[in-house]
Structure formats: C-alpha cells, structure tokens
Amino acid sequence: MLEVLKSLPMTFIPLFVAMDVFAVLPVFLSVTGEIDEESRKTVVRHSIITALAVSLVFVAIGEVVFRILGITVDDFKIAGGLVLLVIAVLDLLRYGGERRKIEEAIGVVPIGVPLIVGPAVLTTLMVLIDHHGIFPTVISLILNLGIVWISFVKADDITRAIGKNGIIALSKVMAILLASIAVMMIRLGVENLIK
User: Fold this and answer.
1) To 5 degrees, how large is the angle CA 92–CA 94–CA 95?
2) 87 and 110 in contact (C-beta within 8 Å)?
C-alpha cells in the first residue's frame, strides 16, 4: 500500500496534464451552454462514465488489441489527431449565434471520448502502467476524472466568473489550440511511422 501511495504523484500529474481539464471545459461549456440543467447533468454523467469505462477497458485489453490488429501507438496518435482536428474545425467554423446541434450522445462522443479520454490519456495510461503498476495508475485516473466531474458540475459558476463572451472567446482560443494539438499528434505519428 505504501508503494502505491509513493507512486500516486508520479501517476497523477501526467494524467492531469494529459486530460487537460482547462482545454476540455470550454468545449463542454460551448456544447452544453443552452441546454437545461437536467440534460446537462445527464451529459456530465455520460461523459465521466464513458471516460472511465473506455479507460478501464483500454487498460485491460488495449495492448492485446493493438498487437492483434497490428496498430501502433503512432497509428493511434494519427487517428485521434484527425478526430480532434475535425472537432476543432467544426467549432471554429460555427458562427457567433449558431449552436452545434445537441445530440443525445454528446456526453459519450465527443466529450467522454476523445476530449476527456483521448489518445494522449490512453497512451499515458499504457506508459504509466508499465512504469508504476496498475493500482496507482487506476487510482490516479479516478482522481483526475473526479476533478473533471467537479469542473463540469461547477461549469455555471465558472461561466458567471468569466462571462458568456469570455467563454466564447476562450472556447475559440481552445479550438485553435485543439487544432494545433491535433496537427502535432498527426505529425508525430507520421514522423515515427516514417522512421
């Protein structure tokens, strides 16, 4: 148990950086900004459950599936980058008053996967399990998802503090950053495949 506690900071911090709640929150707010409170709670619940389930399934069988299908981490980076790029471009091309159509499964895709748990988190999970073991890694995953959940639940307070225009501006800036991260992931994946 002492070993698990010693490894927690070394597993918590990389997952916190990989999840990047500060980048996910503006997207969450822009997608759920005009839906009622009950629907938002449903989206939050779906996104956290999806992120946890996908992560745990990936921890359990990800490496085996990769080997069977012949998928490399670089392939995974390219695919995840393409999905993020599409999301970012769609967000950037929306006009000021136009809202993305709220779909029932918005908590599952894109919020749960790939925004909360995407290629960066899944890749980080694989590396951390190899270096620190499964228990501290899963505990850190759950703690980080708790932080994301609290951020989503307090999204209205954050909106009041920053203001609607601030959230829109932040959302656009984050969409540009998301597009940049997506391009970087694609580039790194392609570079590594070429080597």
Assistant:
1) 120
2) yes
